[in-house]
Design brief:
Blueprint lengths: L1 H16 L2 H35 L40 H13 L3 H26 L3 E2 L2 E12 L7 E9 L3 E9 L1 H11 L4 E2 L5 E8 L2 E8 L3 E8 L3 E8 L4 H8 L4 H8 L3
Antiparallel strand pairs: 1-2, 2-3, 3-4, 4-9, 5-6, 6-7, 7-8, 8-9
C-alpha cells in the first residue's frame, strides 16, 4: 500500500512540474497502459467463463485451442473456389447477320427476337467504331508507348450508351496515361458540376480543379496527390474523353500529352455534332 501511495505522489509531482504539453503526453501513456492491463484482465475472465461452460481451452487471443482445417471452406461452411478458367471473350455480333435475322424474325411476326437482333446489330456497329478509334490513336505520346494488351472496347448497352474505348500508355518505371473515350455518366455529371460552378481551391494559392481548353474544347483538369492528374474534355451532350495521368510532373505535361490526340477526328468518328 505504501508503495502505491509513493508512486502516486511521484507521478503527481512529475505532472505538476512538467510543461502542460509534456504532462498531457505522459498522462496519455499512463492511461493507455492502464487500459491495456484492464483489457487483459477482462479477456482472461471471458476466456475462463468459456472454458468452464464448454470445456474447450481458449488461447490468449480468445480462439479455440483446437485447430481445424479451413483451407477448403470458409467460416460460413461454404467451400472456397480454387479452380475455373473464367469467361472467354465473346465474339462481337456480326452486323450483317443480325440485320438478316431481324428481317427474318420480323416477317415471321416474332417481334421480340427481331428487336433483339437489331440491338445486337447496333452493338456490333459500336464495337467496330471503337476499334476504328483505337486504330487512329498515336503509338507514342510524350515518350510513353501504347500497351495494346490493355486496349478495350466495352459496351454494356446498345445505342451508344455506357460504352468505353480505352488505351493505356506506359513509360518505365511507373509513369502511365490512360485515355478513355465514350459515354460515361459519372464523368459527364462531374464536368457539368464544375462548368456550372466556381473554381474549387485546395488552399489560397493552388487550385485542385480548374477549367482549361484543349485544342479549342472546354475542359476540366483535376489533381489528386494519390491519383495524379485527370483531364476531361466533353464531346457533345454526353460523350467525352478523359486522360488519367500518373506521375506526370506538371499540369503542362498533361496538356502537351492531350494535344497529341486528334480530338476533331475522334469526335467525327463517334458521330458527335
Amino acid at each position: 500500500m505504501k508503495t502505491i501511495v509513493c508512486t502516486a505522489l511521484i507521478l503527481a509531482f512529475a505532472l505538476l512540474s512538467a510543461p502542460a504539453s509534456h504532462a498531457q503526453g505522459f498522462l496519455k501513456k499512463i492511461k493507455d497502459k492502464a487500459n491495456q492491463v484492464a483489457d487483459k484482465a477482462v479477456d482472461k475472465a471471458v476466456n475462463k467463463t468459456i472454458e468452464d461452460k464448454t470445456g474447450v481451452p481458449m488461447d490468449s487471443n480468445g480462439s479455440s485451442g483446437s485447430s481445424g482445417s479451413s483451407s477448403s471452406s470458409s467460416s460460413s461452411g461454404r467451400p472456397t473456389n480454387k479452380t475455373g478458367e473464367g469467361l472467354k471473350n465473346a465474339t462481337p455480333p456480326d452486323v450483317n447477320a443480325q440485320i438478316l435475322e431481324a428481317e427474318k424474325t420480323h416477317d415471321a411476326g416474332n417481334y421480340s427476337d427481331s428487336r433483339y437482333a437489331i440491338q445486337q446489330a447496333l452493338l456490333g456497329v459500336e464495337i467496330q467504331i471503337g476499334r476504328e478509334v483505337l486504330a487512329s490513336l498515336p503509338a507514342t505520346v510524350s515518350g510513353l508507348n501504347k500497351d495494346t494488351v490493355q486496349d478495350k472496347v466495352a459496351a454494356t448497352q446498345w445505342g451508344w450508351s455506357n460504352i468505353t474505348i480505352q488505351r493505356v500508355y506506359t513509360k518505365s518505371p511507373d509513369q502511365q496515361m490512360t485515355i478513355s473515350i465514350g459515354n460515361n455518366s459519372f464523368y459527364s455529371g462531374l464536368v457539368n458540376v464544375y462548368f456550372n460552378n466556381a473554381y474549387v481551391q485546395a488552399n489560397a494559392e493552388q487550385q485542385n480543379v480548374k477549367q482549361v481548353k484543349v485544342k479549342g474544347y472546354r475542359a476540366i483538369i483535376q489533381f489528386d496527390s494519390n491519383k495524379g492528374y485527370t483531364l476531361l474534355v466533353p464531346l457533345g451532350q454526353t460523350s467525352l474523353i478523359s486522360w488519367e495521368c500518373i506521375n506526370f510532373a506538371t499540369e503542362q505535361d498533361v496538356m502537351n500529352a492531350a494535344n497529341a490526340f486528334d480530338i476533331d477526328g475522334i469526335k467525327k468518328m463517334l458521330g458527335e455534332q
